[in-house]
Amino acid sequence: MNSLKLCGFQKTTLLDYPGYVACTLFLGGCNFRCPFCHNSGILDGSADESITMEELMDFLKKRKGILEGICITGGEPTLHPLPLFRLMDQIKPLGYRIKLDTNGSRPDILKQLCTDGLIDYVAMDIKAGRPHYGKVCGLDEFLLAPIDQSVQWLKEGHIPFEFRTTVVKGLHDIDDFNDISLWLAGDSPYYLQEFVPSRQVPDKNLTAVSSNEMELFLAAAKRFLPNARIRGIV
Fold it and tell me: In this model, does residue 197 exceed pLDDT 50?
């Protein structure tokens, strides 16, 4: 895809960019097919645009000084490197902080965005433990190496970041979090997020784990990830 498709826009959020009043932009297209995805309607890049680039920039200019940041999510934003760089080049001079949500599959793009000073925070999804990562991503053929490159690069501390896993009953078990704890081991911030069923999720049979299971998974993660936390349980 040679251009960005702006498939969703949330004008104000207090949740998507921790510590900042922000807006959220959803870009179409993704290379994963996770059965628990809440944005399944935009994954193939065919969804209608909900906002034009001109409307987006006009909004950001008008909200300058009111909003503090923008979260760019998807889909997977790093699939569109050149237009993504151009978009961020336009946003940055307005004084906005930019948070990137990514699955980590394009470590080269992630590194370049950081090197160019275009992003201020990264939230990287850790889909599962390494042994069945591809299955949870909904892919028959899968290479973990790019994901691991992104993990190791973020752990080096080049930019503020968090790792996070959406926990789904039937897709995750204690072995996942034992492995994730070893894989991410260190002081990295790591969040277990509650899965919330919705009409947009491809697999309508998926459900959330119990609060007791979530606590067990958290305990497993904390073995080597002392900064592991639960996010999203009311």
Answer: yes
User: Contact at 8 Å (CB) between 99 and 123?
Assistant: yes
pLDDT digits (tens, 9 = 90+) for 208-233: 999 999 999 999 999 999 999 999 65
Of 93, 119, 92, nearest in space to 106 by CA: 119
The secondary structure of the chain as a DSSP string is: --S--EEEEEEEESSSSTTS-EEEEEE---S---TT-TTGGGTTS-SPPSS-HHHHHHHHHHTBTTB-EEEEESS-GGGSHHHHHHHHHHHGGGT-EEEEEE-S--HHHHHHHHHTT--SEEEEE--S-GGGHHHHTT-SS---HHHHHHHHHHHTTSS-EEEEEEE-BTTB-HHHHHHHHHHH-SS--EEEEE----TT-S-TT--PPPHHHHHHHHHHHTTT-TTEEEES--
- Joined together, the tokens standing for residue 17 give 């960019």
